[in-house]
Amino acid sequence: ELTTVRVQDPRVQNEGSWNSYVDYKIFLHTNSKAFTAKTSCVRRRYREFVWLRRQLQKNAGLVPVPELPGKSTFFVGSTDEFVEKRRQGLQQFLEKVVQNVVLLSDSRLHLFLQSQLSVPEIEACVQGQGSQTVTEAILHYAMSNCGWVQEEESRP
């Protein structure tokens, strides 16, 4: 089984405002039975990764969860350099997570990677309080074509 996960195409949202942030495209391609959709593409920001790691840690018991790149407020160097270092760190984090069978069994991870649901919507879905099951939410996103974006589009 092969799972490729790429974190790419960082974009600044709300640029120039006090609430600007960077989000990243997460492209997933797999033939693993663990995943509902074989290809997906979503955008996530750093604080959603922080939430995901916290949830995985809570549910993984004694299984160590990979570290995220630091949240440096005092970064020395260019913003571009910082964003690129963070992108690489987020990619390494996800690569390690999807290789771990215990972490792979967490529904939150699948919704994070294969739907564009917000963090509260993911929580509701996992707790059975959403309008869809986890599988339905992923399939709905995959069928909407939002989840299918050719990886080649964003190759430098």
UniProtKB/TrEMBL annotation:
Keyword hit for Plastid? no
* A cellular component annotation (GO) from this entry: endosome
GO BP field? intracellular protein transport; vesicle organization
Entry's localization field: Cytoplasm; Endomembrane system; Endosome
| Keyword Transport attributed | yes
Principal localization reads: cytoplasm
The residues covered by the PX domain are 2-119
Which InterPro entries does the entry link to?
PX_dom (IPR001683), PX_dom_sf (IPR036871), SNX10/11 (IPR043544)
- PROSITE patterns in UniProt: PX
Enumerate the UniProt keywords alphabetically.
Cytoplasm, Endosome, Lipid-binding, Membrane, Protein transport, Transport
Matching Gene3D superfamilies, A to Z? Answer: Phox-like domain (3.30.1520.10)
Domain of life, source organism:
Eukaryota
User: Membrane topology type, per the record?
Assistant: Peripheral membrane protein
Which terms does the record give in the GO molecular function aspect?
Answer: phosphatidylinositol phosphate binding
Task: From the UniProt record, list the coiled-coil ranges.
Answer: none
Q: Its family?
A: Belongs to the sorting nexin family.
What is the name listed in the Swiss-Prot or TrEMBL entry for this protein?
SNX11 protein
